[in-house]
Amino acid sequence: MTQDKTTNILIVGVGGQGILLSADILALLLVGQGFDVKQAEIHGMSQRGGSVHSMVRYGTAISSPLISRGDVDYLMAYEELEALRWAPFVKPGGTVIVNKKQIAPAPVALGVAAYPEDPLARLRQNFARTTLVEADRLAQEAGNVRAANLVMLGALAAGLPFSKELWRDTIAGRVPPKTLEVNQDAFELGWEVANA
Amino acid sequence: MTKKLMSGNEALARGAFEAGVTVAAGYPGTPSTEILEELVKSEGVYAEWAPNEKVAFEVGIGASIAGARVLVTLKQVGLNVAADPLFTFSYTGVNGGFVFINADDPQLHSSQNEQDNRHYARAAKIPMLEPADSAEAKAMLIKAYGISEEFDTPVMLRTTTRISHSKSIVELGERSEVGNKPYEKRFDKFVMLPGNAFKRHIFVEERLRRLAEFNDAGDLNPIISGSPKLGIIAAGAAYEYAREAFPAASHLKLGMTYPLPAETIRAFAAGVERLFVVEELDPFLEDQIKAMGIEVTGKACLPLIGELNPDIVFKGITGAYDEAKDLARPGLAEELAESDRLQTDFADAPMRPPIMCPGCPHRAVYSVLKRLKVIVNGDIGCYTLGALPPLSGLDTQLCMGTGVSVVHGFGLADPDFRKRAVGVIGDSTFIHSGITGLIDIVYNGGQNTVIILDNRITAMTGRQQNPATGRTLRGTPAPELDFEQLAAAIGVKSVRVVDPYETEEVERAVKEELAKDEASLIIARRPCLLVERFTAPPFAVDPVTCKDCGACSNIGCPAIAKSGAPIKPGGPAKPVIDPAVCVGCALCFKACKFDAISQAKEG
């Protein structure tokens, strides 16, 4: 049985943060590079403020669309509580990229549950490779706060073995033309943060 | 050849196109909805949303008997609705090939139960195929049309949420223009009088025997050879999990799971030391394999409830059979142990349940019903989310239509309930299964009050058109079903239309209709905000005037955080409204008795 290297990427956040778009861009790029790719996500509730995730796996031959708990190489979290929720999926030594952003879920807004204290410190304690990204601020800088998902994607891309040109081409093929410039700029800023 | 990353549902739509399907029908239901939404874009294919699954199925039957290749799509509970035509269509058989896609939902990602619809294939005595990824979904659907026409049978293609919504690589092919089969009047085949049906039952049993032979001889059930120490039989997503967890084991991957390929299973079982069957939900395969006299382990070590994944399969099988550990993916056990530790450490992460959107008209109606303390018999749709705190707005909710019929039952059990229970149901759901319930109320003199939460769309499944919206699945204009006239024709004397945002008017309507000694229908009409955007300047709480009574936060709006809510250390002293989330619907403003909430000036 061959044990070809499979890379597992988990993207998590809250409905409306553009998680599925970033996952689509990532998967498109990987398919273009000739990898076997599987992508798993749950539709339906994403527009109603629920927790949203997308699993992207690539390698020579992928079986399960679901990543095993503890086998994630890269966790990209668009919200701090979601990072904490999904951290147990990350493999020892894995990479965690977190957006500096807290969105209170309904039980917290209703005062029946507490937002966890200092999620970032707890992530850092467990994962040496934790990168914090101020995606909202950087997206604002790029021209639109809604491009925060592309900032995050840029931060992830900086750690993956594909050229920036390839990413830029894939983004150009996927996002609406009128948002392309902002999205490219946002991606660039994310890439720089991760390389800093 | 073009290769594309496609979801299972997209691949199934492509498969129907390539198979030469010309007629398709269904009713929206997660996780099956996207198949027809995708297929309708294909040239040469007619696709429609029917009012419910039974109608969709029967439309498909008609098109098949008339000669076309047909696709019907539905979710697992939808097949309950379509079961009546299915069982007799199994007897008549087809003319043009007929396949229905049944999407099960283990783990109840978006369903009211976790039923295992594989039992339907067995009960209706029809073949069933189960793809494990998108490429297989397309290939199997094309194959299913061949089986349908060769064996004269409807075919069930079963997916689960993970197959329908996961993406993998698919190679696109060309469409075969198969054309319609000639129609011929066949009294013995298509008119199921008892005498004819009895003979067709004989045909069905013989067909099942031939299908089992076909399945044994065919190529739908590959064996992936590995160590003889561990053999695993699985199908669909469960196969992918088993292969992920135990890449070095031997696998029998079933593609056609009814009727089973008995000889293939026997041969595989004979070649391995320990045999397991990995399947989600019921022991459907396990029971049949055991009935063949084969020793196999399944539900003794794997759960009956919920979805499987590679971790559960690993833990279940290694717990029952220690030697399986040597055949698992290297590192899996260690990763899981570390993950278990982290799960305990991070167990304080609160849930993030879905919630009705800010400004949702349903919330406004529920806020009134809550104030009036009435019993609410609910139904299936976005408005089911009103059951969650703080609205806690539902007493009952089971299936499509119960918003109308259950409230009648309440009134029969005790006349007192007629004055303090209402039924609520959405527009699409009312058309699907509520109309007959309303007829029942009027026919039998029920004095119940029913509220249609009419948001002009099938919202929960992702905003599909329905007979009341004025558009079809194809985007063409259609007559809008008129609920007022329909109710009048049924014989409801008291029909009134209210705007959910006018909460005082809603309150008056509910009170007055409940007081009447006759059947009443209230239509609470305002379009879903995801269809027709509503935006007014946001509201804000004046912390000085606010008495912190909780009236605003108790409407359950995602824009409002309660006083003291731990959104930040210490929490706010008074409720706060997030101006970025607020759409300005004014529901909180109307709920506030102390004039502490005001609207920002127009920008």
Q: Would you write up a description of this structure?
A:
The complex is a heterodimer of chains A (196) and B (603). Chain A has one domain (7-195): Pyruvate-ferredoxin Oxidoreductase, domain 3 (3-Layer(aba) Sandwich), CATH 3.40.920.10. Helices cover 40% and strands 22% of the residues of chain A. Chain A is built from 8 helices and 6 strands. Chain A has a 6-stranded mixed β-sheet, with helices on both faces. In chain A, α2 links the parallel β4 and β5 (90-99). In chain A, α1 crosses α7 (164-174), α2 (80-86) runs parallel beside α4 (119-126) and α6 (148-157) packs across α8 (180-195). Chain B folds into 4 domains: 3-217, 3-Layer(aba) Sandwich (Rossmann fold); 223-342, Rossmann fold (3-Layer(aba) Sandwich), CATH 3.40.50.920; 361-525, Thiamin diphosphate (ThDP)-binding fold, Pyr/PP domains (Rossmann fold); 535-603, Alpha-Beta Plaits. Chain B is built from 20 helices and 22 strands. In chain B, the strands form 6 sheets. In chain B, strands 3-2-4-5-7-6-12 form a 7-stranded mixed β-sheet. A 5-stranded parallel β-sheet of chain B has the order 14-15-16-18-17, sandwiched between helices. In chain B, strands 9-11-10-13 form a 4-stranded mixed β-sheet, sandwiched between helices. In chain B, β2 (23-26), α2 (34-39) and β3 form a beta-alpha-beta unit. Chain B starts with a strand and ends with a strand. At the A-B interface, α1, β2, α2, β5 and α3 of A face β1, α7, β8, α10 and α13 of B.
Mean pLDDT figure of chain B: 96
Number of helices of chain B: 20
Return the domain count of chain B.
4
**What fraction of the residues of chain A are assigned to beta strands by DSSP?**
15-25%
Low-pLDDT windows of residues of chain A:
none
Q: Which ranges of chain B are low-confidence, i.e. pLDDT below 50, for 5 or more consecutive residues?
A: none
Coarse shape of chain A: globular
Examine the secondary-structure arrangement and name the CATH architecture of chain A.
Answer: 3-Layer(aba) Sandwich
CATH class of the largest domain in chain B: Alpha Beta
Tally the helices of chain A: what do you get? 8
Count the beta strands of chain B: 22
**Content-based structural category of chain A:** alpha/beta
CATH homologous superfamily grouping of the largest domain in chain B:
Thiamin diphosphate (ThDP)-binding fold, Pyr/PP domains
Return the structural class of chain B: alpha/beta
Per the CATH scheme, the topology name of chain A is Pyruvate-ferredoxin Oxidoreductase, domain 3
- Secondary structure: number of strands of chain A: 6
What form of chain B results from the Cα inertia axes? globular
- In the CATH scheme, the class of chain A would be Alpha Beta
Task: Report strand % of chain B.
Answer: 15-25%
